[in-house]
Amino acid sequence: MWDWFLLFLQIMLINIVLSGDNAVVIALASKNLPIEQRKKAIWWGAFGAIALRLILTVIAVYILTVPYIQAAGSILLIWIAIKLLIDDDGHANVKEATTLGKAVWTIIVADFVMSLDNVLAIAAKAENDLTVIILGIGLSVPIIVWGSTLVMNLLTKYPILVFLGAGILGYTAGEMFVKDETVSHLILGNTPHWIVPVVCTIVVIGAGLLKKMAGGPKPKHS
């Protein structure tokens, strides 16, 4: 039970850390609507985004069981984790919508484009446990939507949360690589497999610390 709860918390943290900009998308897309329509756009846009993200994550869970796909996904996930810490790009350029339908559509499409990293990370971490996937996504997305200001402030005020999220992603990437038995056996041979997740975590955190020491922008969500 404790292992399941820990996994749930990790998925929540990954989703919140990786979804910071999604809150900005929702705010921008519905900014020009009347207050009543703005609320509806947020509700329906968030509902559509949650449903789409759940479907994509379940599909990703099964795709990741294919040999070589999981190893390739692990490399992509390491890149996502490093990008989370060193990326200095601004928020996505989102067009402000003038009607309820356009706002809802903008939110869903933008969330789809921006959530591919979340989908991969959560599918890799959840280990085929659909219950924890549904709960992790279902609960964290409303937190992002309705608590977007709080989430953004927390990530800015406590950069350690971003580092922690990136570290979990790095470790998950290492676990993904090891689970792809075809590739890991070929490359690792008799090397103890526990070393890979540890090294991946160190690489990700190290990249973030180097960026910070180099005087670059503070780590922020992608």
UniProtKB/TrEMBL annotation:
User: What protein am I looking at?
Assistant: TerC family protein
Q: Does the keyword Transmembrane helix apply?
A: yes
User: Which keywords annotate this record?
Assistant: Membrane, Transmembrane, Transmembrane helix
Residue ranges crossing the lipid bilayer per the database entry: 6-29, 41-62, 68-86, 130-151, 158-174, 194-210
Pfam families this protein is in?
TerC (PF03741)
**Membrane topology summary:** Multi-pass membrane protein
So what family is this one in? Belongs to the TerC family.
Q: Among its keywords, does the record have Nucleotide-binding? A: no
Query: Which InterPro entries does the record cross-reference, listed alphabetically?
Result: Integral_membrane_TerC, Integral_membrane_YjbE
Subcellular localization(s) per the UniProt record: Membrane
